[in-house]
Amino acid sequence: MTPPSMSAAPDFDYCIVGGGLQGCLLAHALAWHRPEATVLLVERAAELCGNHTWSFHETDVAEGARSWFDPLVSCRWPGYRVRFPGLTRRVSLPYATITSDRLREATLSLAGGVEGTARPGRLVIRTGETCEILSPTAVRVGGTADISCREVLDCRGRTAQTASPGGAGYQTFIGHEYETAGRWPAAEPTVMDVRADQAAGFEFLYELPLGPDRVLLEYTRFHEEPACDESRADDLIATRLAEAGAPSAKLIRTETGCLPMPYAAAASRAGSSLAGGYAGGWYHAATGYSMPLAVRFAELVARARPDQVAAAIAGAAAEDRLRRGFARFLNRLLFCLVRPTDRWKIFQRFYRVLPEERIARFYAHRFTFTDAARIVIGWPPSGLAPIRFARSFVSLPGPVAT
Ligand SMILES: Cc1cc2nc3c(=O)[nH]c(=O)nc-3n(C[C@H](O)[C@H](O)[C@H](O)COP(=O)(O)OP(=O)(O)OC[C@H]3O[C@@H](n4cnc5c(N)ncnc54)[C@H](O)[C@@H]3O)c2cc1C
Q1: With a 6 A CB cut-off, is 4 part of the ligand 1 pocket?
Q2: Which helix (H) or strand (E) holds 253?
Q3: Which residue is closest in CA terms to ligand 1's atom 4?
Q4: Which residues pair with 387 in a beta bridge?
Q5: What CATH code is carried by the domain that includes residue 186?
Q6: pLDDT per residue over 16-62, tens digit each?
Q7: Among 127, 142, 334, 341, which is most buried by a count of CB atoms within 10 Å?
Q8: Which of 262, 294, 329 is the last residue of a domain?
Q9: Hey, whose CA ends up nearest to atom 2 of ligand 1?
Q10: How far apart are CA 17 and CA 156, in angstroms?
């Protein structure tokens, strides 16, 4: 089968391949900024958006994106807590979450014409079909149908091509959402509860009160291997439920996942289509949060004139190059130079010494040179192996043994 002829008018203006976080945000940004554009969104799974709870700092999102982004937000809190041995801090930065259910519903309504957001015929969604990218302006859907467009946007998430050639550490998650009989005792999230002993490496509980009687408790572990310890997760979650007076809360949903934290950039794919989200490196390599850069990518694509999208993306990626490199450097430091049992100290220090504006800029991937210096200078020497640290500037060391 040959790619469709480009002499005829293309079938769509934009073709988004992958209906996860990036693909759906992009559909919303295009609907807002380019209401005249025709968009095809193809997702290989039966449903859009998977099964996630995507949190972020409100300061991650630029003012210009608020009009289309705000209606997607499921929950908001004025601040959050972190708890470490020797430190409990409330951070007064507004925090928020978008759930898969909310984003799926809002994206389907964009296509289907519900509640005044209708653009019938402008956004076409196809799920349950794998999409192959034939060229920067053509895709093949479901193995048979070739479709032309002005711009293919690769939002396929993690693929073999996104693997870091220099290796990676991993953030693994097991999250359980509960309905409780009474009111959950905390009204704000705790994004790191590091009270458990750290013998198995850096691990913590993440707590998100999604309503007065609903809570997501997520066990997170930073490790050299992409494996998660389910019995450890069950233990820590059960301990927190008991402490909160809700030992028999009803489990209503589970989400699991593993996110590589790369040490080096993925190989570039010259000549391929434009890539956003995880596929294009538009995520925060050191925190694992995708939202700040996924929103930025969506805004860039949707605001650029169609013939200038590639230039806008390339320009923004170049402007962010040093920050991306620094985020990967932090991963190398954490996984290759700090003993697993000492890793929590790095995060404790981050929250102990940084003022809120620096924390906000770090998470938003807008940190300055001074912010970066403040983050690494003075890392606890007890956790850092100085000779390995010096050598790491020359070559990538292997992980530090426990
Ligand atoms: C458990 C967990 C918790 C997380 N929590 C947060 C958080 O709180 N905040 C945050 O910002 N980030 C979080 N992240 C990170 C975030 O989920 C991902 O980085 C983000 O989903 C990446 O977005 P994406 O659109 O690039 O990829 P995805 O969301 O993975 O979407 C890619 C989509 O493309 C589809 N696809 C792939 N190939 C094809 C194909 N050939 N044809 C059609 N469709 C295709 C896939 O089925 C998938 O739906 C978390 C990750 C995990 C694992």
Answers
A1: no
A2: strand 250-262
A3: 54
A4: none
A5: 3.30.70
A6: 999 999 999 999 999 999 999 999 999 999 999 999 999 999 999 99
A7: 334
A8: 262
A9: 257
A10: 6
